[in-house]
């Protein structure tokens, strides 16, 4: 499941906490054994079968944002109802003075409603995050953010999700459509965001307006 959030200016005052880059724990220093060999495991190395692909906590991973979602919904209702009743009084006797047209009644009601809703969301680009947790089943938790400080405010993209390390390519890249439980938030603040926000007086009248 992918959660794509476009935060409104009223809610995007500052980036949410918890998306800081994950850093690997510093390993304890391992003294090198003087064995006369050029190769030493304690000096660190990249195996030939793994290369430089991200696989440990703190390694960067590039997310290719290719989100494109379109939803559409329509509903319609139509009802009609009618009825009538009439009584014919006798033409003779004590009720002969009644007018037959005055004893007729009819009713009719109808209702018709229709609604349509369409929403399209598109997000493209790249954002680099770090591995926050490596799990025994070969998956990893990714988390990170990208902030842009502009002259009229700032914008940010926050991303988190779970990927299979085997799905990463040789450059540690993966499409956002292959990220499980993905959460993507794009928001911003500043004068440009405030200009697109409805004023408080207009919001007040929209709340109390019965129309």
Secondary-structure map:
Elements: E1 2-6, E2 60-86, E3 104-134, E4 139-150, E5 153-164, E6 173-175, E7 180-190, H1 191-195, H2 200-208
Parallel strand pairs: 1-7, 2-6
Antiparallel strand pairs: 2-3, 3-4, 4-5, 5-7
Listing every helix as H and every strand as E from the N terminus to the C terminus, the arrangement reads EEEEEEEHH
Q: What share of the residues lie within helices? A: under 10%
As residue ranges, the low-confidence spans are: none
**Total beta-strand segments:** 7
Structural class comes to: mainly beta
Quaternary state, please? single chain
Across the major sheet, the strand order is 1-7-5-4-3-2-6
Output mean pLDDT. 77
End-to-end Cα distance, whole Å, is 37 Å
Work out the strand percent: over 45%
Task: Supply Rg.
Answer: 34 Å
Q: Looking at the structure, what is the overall shape?
A: elongated
How is the main sheet built? 7 strands, mixed
Kindly list the characteristics that best describe this protein.
211 residues, mainly beta, seven-stranded mixed sheet, elongated
Architecture overview:
The chain is mainly beta and 211 residues long. The chain is 7% helix and 48% strand. It contains 2 helices and 7 strands. The chain has a 7-stranded mixed beta sheet.
Short description:
By secondary structure, the chain is mainly β.
């Amino acid at each position: 499941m992918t959660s794509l959030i476009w935060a409104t200016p009223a809610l995007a005052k500052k980036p949410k906490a918890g998306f800081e880059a994950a850093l690997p724990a510093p390993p304890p220093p391992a003294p090198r054994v003087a064995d006369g060999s050029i190769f030493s495991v304690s000096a660190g190395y990249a195996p030939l079968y793994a290369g430089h692909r991200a696989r440990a906590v703190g390694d960067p991973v590039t997310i290719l944002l290719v989100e494109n979602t379109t939803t559409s919904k329509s509903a319609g209702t139509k009802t009609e109802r009618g009825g009538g009743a009439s009584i014919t009084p006798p033409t003779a006797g004590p009720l002969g003075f009644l007018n037959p047209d005055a004893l007729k009644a009819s009713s009719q009601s109808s209702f018709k409603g229709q609604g349509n809703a369409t929403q399209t969301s598109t997000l493209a680009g790249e954002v680099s995050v770090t591995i926050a947790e490596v799990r025994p089943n070969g998956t990893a938790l990714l988390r990170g953010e990208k902030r842009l400080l502009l002259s009229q405010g700032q914008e940010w993209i926050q991303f988190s999700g779970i990927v299979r390390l085997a799905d990463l390519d040789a450059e540690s890249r993966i499409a956002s459509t292959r990220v499980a439980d993905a959460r993507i938030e794009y928001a911003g603040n500043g004068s440009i965001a405030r200009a697109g926000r409805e004023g408080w007086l207009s919001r007040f009248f929209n709340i109390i307006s019965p129309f």
